[in-house]
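To whoever is on call:

I kicked off a structure prediction for a single chain this morning and the downstream step that reads the tokens threw a length-mismatch warning. I double-checked the sequence; it's 302 residues and nothing unusual in it as far as I can see. Pasting both halves so you can look.
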Amino acid sequence: MLMRNIVIASMNLTLGAAAALAQAGPVSSVPATTSGPSAWVYVSSLIGNTGRSDVYAFTAASSGKLTSISGSPFSVDVSSMAVNGLYLFGAPTSGSFIDSYHIESNGGLHYAASTNASAPNKCSNTPGPVFLDHTGASLYDFYYWGDSICSNNVYQAWNVVKSTGKLTYVNAGGSSEELTGVLTFTGNNEYAYTADCYHFSPAISGFKRNSNGSLTQLAINNPWPKAPVNQGYCPYLAAADPTNHLAIPVQPYVGYGSPAGPYQLATYTVQSNGNLTTASTYANMPKVSVGNVTNLSMAPSG
């Protein structure tokens, strides 16, 4: 079995608990709210070569010890997950639906609802990673080729019906091949970012989160760290701290796609209008020592 995704949910959260549900990629950490087990941990794992997955569920003690929850593994077929303490949301490994599962008092999972993610745009692709804003009231999915003509990537915004787990469509933000992966939300929940280097055209994409949960893409200024002569940077992903800063992995390259060294971590400050500034340079950015970057998340403390 291959581990696909891990999410961590705090105990006894209610939908809309401010700042308790920050997610910066598939791994989400939230503070404990009880004196008992600190959290529930959910692991999505492929079942052999079937193309389906199960979800293993655990309680986590304050020491970090994991104890399997009764009934685990659950027959929950999801390739990505997000939790808000009341529901676990997942995009299945195939098909166009986003499924909602109620989190029981012991951390077990019970099917609640399904929402057809392709219905708003009539594109038949499978929704990509799902993720939440800081309140847990808005769910988003990355939809490959999901714009009005099914030719560009978008982020779909949904509001969560607290009583049922059903999703109601809000809008599709952005329309570009450069969009990829999950968005990371700033501490005030007002802006969200991701970064990619599609066809070696580096871009940081930013969005404003509106009061109804909808996303509006920003025309941000894309500042780049100072690089050595004849070099550039390819960014990939972003992670926001609890205030107004971002960390973005960038790989130096020469010419068209020739890496010039390991990934480095650039830091950015988010301005009040969503624009970004950076004091990062080739000389002051730490180098990533794990090889290629595939995921990125920020500690709740920043």
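Update from on-call: the warning came from a stale cache, not from the record. Cleared it. Sanity check on the structure: The chain has no helices and 22 strands.
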